[in-house]
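Trying the structure run again after the queue cleared.
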Amino acid sequence: MKNMKFPGIKAAVILCAGLFLSTTVTAQDKEQKKIEAATTVLSDFSKMKESIPSELLAITEGIIVVPKLINAGFVIGGKHGKGVAMVKKADGSWSNPVFVTITGGSVGAQIGVQAVDLILVFKNSKSLTDIKKSSFTLGGDLSVAAGPVGRSSTANTDYKLEAEVYSYSRSKGLFAGITLNGASLAVDAQANTNFYGEDMTANTIFNASASSAAAVKTLKSTLVGMKK
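Done. Tokens:
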């Protein structure tokens, strides 16, 4: 019995291992594409005539980028999207991205389905580092306001005094704007595991050494370039 061979079992083990590796790589590729999409959103925003004021970017300590947030509704609207969150470290550099989700609803006279690119600007990094594995509600746990625009203009803005989070969206479709009050932000633990290869808390990722992934490096450099 000791010398018996089981080629069928061996082949099955190899096949299963191959399928597992393939699934892992596919999942990681999916998250990498999300990072690349977030980079594109930041790049596109920086090219707009009216964009996020440089003064606000200079004091920003956290940011969330959600490409293609789905906003749908017929009187009662709903929204759902996945994106990345980053915080500014003590040395002024940006952290590795943490994958997050945003879900929520709003009530109003709205009809249609629309995908919008969303950027949330946080004045305080603690708002994001406190998220951990739980979630928080915009407009509830944190005050949120439509962000001021105009590259270098501070006219008609209150970002130094009141709101903790400012929202920016680039949209095409039937909605005139986007309402975020009541939307819930949460850590996407599975996406983080897929990309980083292990289960890590948001704080661990925020405080980790800089990722060597090319997509992450490009994301960070694009974000830094926005305030120039």
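The first helix runs from residue 7 to 47. Worth checking whether this holds up in the mutant runs.
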